[in-house]
Amino acid sequence: MTSTRLAVDIGGTFTDLALEHGGTRTTLKVLTTPSAPELGVMQGLRAITGAAGIAPAEIGLIIHGTTLATNAIIERKGARTALITTEGFRDVLAMGNESRYDQYDLNIVLPEPLVPRHLRLPVPERLDNTGAVLRPLDEAAVAALIPLLLAENVESIAVGLLHAFVNPAHEQRIAAILRDALPDIPVSLSSEVSPEMREWERFSTTVANAYVQPMMARYLRRLEADLHASGAVSPLFLMMSGGGLTTIDTACRFPIRLVESGPAGGAIFSAHIARECGLDGVLSFDMGGTTAKICLIDACSPQTARTFEVARIGRFRKGSGLPLRIPVIEMVEIGAGGGSIAHVDALGRIAVGPESAGADPGPVCYGRGGKKAAVTDANLLLGRYDPARFAGGSIPLDAAAARSALLADVGAPLGLTAEHAALGVLEIVDENMANAARVHAIESGKSYQGRTLIAFGGGGPVHAFRVAEKIGISRVLVPSGAGVGSAIGFLRAPVGYEVVRSLYQRLSTFDVAAVNDLLEDMRQEAEAAVAKGSFGAPTAETRTAYMRYVGQGHEIPVPLPNAVLGEEDVTAIRDRYDQAYARFFDRPVPGSDVEIMSYAVAVTTVTDAVAAPPRPDSLFTAEAVPARVQTVLDTATGAVSDWPVYERTSLAPGVAIAGPAIVAEDETSTLIGPGWSAAVNGLGYIEMVRA
Fold first, then answer.
1. How high is the pLDDT of residue 7?
2. How far apart are alpha carbons 446 and 218 in whole angstroms?
3. What is the 3-state secondary structure (H, E, C) of 655-676?
4. 11, 32 in Cβ contact below 8 A?
5. Of 67-76, 510-519, 605-614, which one has max mean pLDDT?
6. Alpha helices per DSSP H over 15-104
7. Mean pLDDT for the chain?
8. Backbone phi, then psi, for 582, in 5-degree steps?
9. Residues 283-312, buried b or exposed e (16+ Cβ, 10 A)?
10. Residue 365 phi, psi dihedral angles, 5° rounding
């Protein structure tokens, strides 16, 4: 990899940048520009290269992640999309799998499909489950749809046919007809976007890809052109939801794989920190301006999944969102960030989020026209921020405006002072995040005992000690560069690509030759994608089968050997499945046949080994000298006291600090609560321990 690399993470409130050059790292936060996100990126590029003393042309690689695709789906601001599907299946998107995320809610609300019914267009054709043609494609019926697509001003087209994951011929022919007649309208095929069985999930993923493709492709090409115009002509790579990097061409073609790109960078960042510090069990806690992301990391690897939901209607409710079948790092994301808006609900309770003030206008204290009190306003009022140091001094904060807003929105309706209103707001947002962490652990079948919480993002280190107290974690780690942790995570991510395909097999009748042919095709596809950006770096391959007992409804992942399979491997695969099943459900089911529903092949560049940090007893222990004091109201006890404030740049490895205290830096502040102590380890990371 090239030595000078820039990472850019666009969030709902801030755009974070991290530049590594000549063994040094420069970081920066600028406000996101929602109407034209590339403007914020270019503003940050000019500022960070100026601070590092280099020209944009010296950057050898740019890595980018963004939540734009996710936001477009949540806010329903994507392209006007049509779906062409098999005759008789136009309502698959609306029917789903007929499950209910709340069994007893008689007025249950389900997410509306991204494509309205009058644009879900059936065509005569039919394949069976083996891919054999039962009814040839009616090409005249496809051509007859073109005037309708033009009249409806359709901007993007999804094609999802029954059993196309086995035989894509009919989808490919439809695409050829459409591209000849409508060359300017992008076409997404389910056999390319999500070639797996289960038509609801496959159609939903394909439609979502088509829905965001025009917007994402335009944005990425504008950004690429602006970067080149500035002299930054290096390759542009995109962070994918599964934790790997891909080329801009692949990202423009399959933008649905970017829906969780920013949060994925944060999980990669935490996994890297875990490797550096030798931590087996970690809770990654990333709190930004708009959302908080929580992810479990074991053995230095984040949890991954094949399914993901976006735009959930029910809070923490599986099944209440639009399903996507893409490789993704598994995490829980909630609307709890610095910009989350506080109010009093109809029952007289303080509520925070999920609505956010974002970057424009932002919290009231930003002085940019915001009128509604937000979490940042509460933190400022309780003394947790220095108004002159926020975001490196680029955004001076107005404490008087924050006080007025909190009093008007929360204090007055409840008969509280502004300070106690702020205290209530912070306790609610901390409890929301702790509750999300509890639910995530329960759903994953894991606990937080013995785990270390790694806190980052602009708000993570501010809220970490209190969230840790609520979920029973007694150790918190705040790495250097925590304020832009997701962007730094981009710099640690491998170039990678995962291919998933379905081929139904039972172990009792396992066709070794057919599976070997499929896996080899998948390996070649993945390697070709990675070769475009690996710069000749060595790669590693992993193979996974998604298996279940015959008659069950859900699969579990089982690793496969990275070699040509033989008949003798079938017994070993069965043993691996039984062991994996027992880990989930305590014991296997003897006598039941096992079926494989799909296969995944991932190829990634090999990540560099990390050096262990210097031993604490080899460090020179310097005395920590506070730069000033701030009057802080403690959210746990309500006590008001003066907390010493230390500049992080002045803290040498080996320094110990007793709480309560604040460690300030340009992108964030670390709060060391009462009853907590902190020390700086050999890597310069702050380790907090609760007595």
1. 93
2. 42
3. CEEECCEEEECCCCEEEECCCE
4. yes
5. 510-519
6. 37-52, 68-74, 92-95
7. 88
8. -65, -35
9. bbbbbbbbbbbbbbbbebebbbebbbbbbb
10. -65, -15
The letter for the amino acid at 40 is G
Amino acid at 359: A
CB neighbour burial string for 349-380, b if at least 16 within 10 angstroms, e if fewer: ebbbbbbbbbbeebbbbbeeebebbbbbbbbb
Whole-number Å distance between alpha carbons of 597 and 575? 17
Looking at residue 156, its pLDDT comes to 96
CA angle 155, 167, 259 (to 5 degrees): 45
User: How much of the chain, in percent, has pLDDT values that exceed 70?
Assistant: 97
**pLDDT for 575 beyond 50:** yes
Give the pair of three-digit tokens for residue 302.
Answer: 């984040």
* CA-closest candidate to residue 379, choices 471, 459, 464: 459
> Residue 2: which pLDDT band, with cuts at 50, 70 and 90?
low
Give residue for tokens 């050096």.
611
Both tokens of 273, joined, read 């920190």
- What gap in Å lies between CA 146 and CA 140, rounded to an integer? 10
Per residue in 614-663, pLDDT tens?
A: 555 545 556 788 888 999 888 878 888 999 999 998 888 889 999 899 99
pLDDT tens for 24-81 read: 899 988 888 888 899 999 999 999 999 999 999 999 889 999 888 887 887 788 999 9
Give residues with Cβ within 8 angstroms of 213, minimum separation 6.
79, 156, 186, 188, 252, 253, 255
Alpha-carbon gap, residue 198 to 524, rounded angstroms:
25
pLDDT of 314 strictly over 70: no
Peptide bond into 387 cis (omega under 30): no
Beta strand pairing call for 640-647 and 661-664: parallel
Strands (E), 140-243: 156-160, 187-189, 236-239
Tell me if the bond preceding 34 is cis, omega within 30° of 0: no
Q: How many other CB atoms are found less than 10 A from the CB of residue 649?
A: 10
pTM for the model: 0.86
Count how many Cα atoms sit within 13 Å of the Cα of residue 147 in the half-sphere of its side chain: 3
- Does residue 447 come out as left (phi exceeding 0), alpha (psi in the -120 to 50 range) or beta? beta
As a residue count, the chain comes to 691
